[in-house]
Amino acid sequence: MNRSSASSSASSLGDSKALRVVARGGYAVSGVLHIVVGWIAMNIALGGSSGEDADQTGALAQIAETSWGPAFLWFAVVALVALALWQVTEAIAGGTDPDPSKRTMARVKAAAKAVAYGAIAVIAWNIVTGSASGSGETLTRTLMESTVGRVLVAAVGVGILAVGGYHVYKGVTKKFEEDLAGGTGGDLGKGVVAAGVAGYVGKGAALGVVGVLFVVGALQSDPEKATGLDVALRSLADLPYGKVLLGLVAVGLAAYGVYSFARARYAKM
């Protein structure tokens, strides 16, 4: 199959109404998870003790403990896989922008999103089926044992930091409105935009802390620092005025969750 036929096939699959409907559910799942992570983070900021990590895994684990949790997790697996698959079709198709460099960037972003949504789907699958997990931390520890591995961890940290910075930029400039097909007019639309601004800035700040800790962890050969969002948020709470900052980030993460619900309805697909 040549590139043209692959792109055509991907476009046909991406245009499937059934796939797009289920994939929109993936944005709704993301909304629920961000709100739960925000709630856990706020609990930490207020000095409470949470038995779950302040990240996607912790949010899924907390949801799993509810009466409706297993059903939600099965739905999350299906919806997130559909959203990841739709992002794959976008990565292959490459969009319609006449600028080749912008099409390439669109492919890269779609591929990265496909990996991210797919990873969350795997976590949900592991929790609902009781499968083993934790391979991510094991990989980080293994990488820390060599110079090349530490360089890779630092590079990942720089990448995460860049993504966080882009989230802040996207929030401040309201560039996220380009992802929506309507839904930003009227009073309700103003709420969606406000949630998007706060959400992207808050999530960007959280990702920025994660990126910094990955770099610091690599420089200090400390795998405990390069473990993800939960450690980043708890580290933020330990700084001067950190609990206030964590509280603001928690609100931002929850706001991103609210925006994700609007995205489930109005996202361009």
From TrEMBL:
UniProt entry keywords in alphabetical sequence: Membrane, Transmembrane, Transmembrane helix
Domain DUF1206 residue range list: 26-93, 109-173, 198-266
InterPro entries reported in the protein's UniProt record: DUF1206
Source taxon at top rank: Bacteria
Transmembrane portions of the chain: 21-42, 71-89, 110-128, 148-169, 200-221, 241-262
Pfam families noted in UniProt: DUF1206
Protein name per the record: DUF1206 domain-containing protein
Organism in which the protein naturally occurs: Sanguibacter suaedae
High-level lineage: Bacteria, Bacillati, Actinomycetota, Actinomycetes, Micrococcales
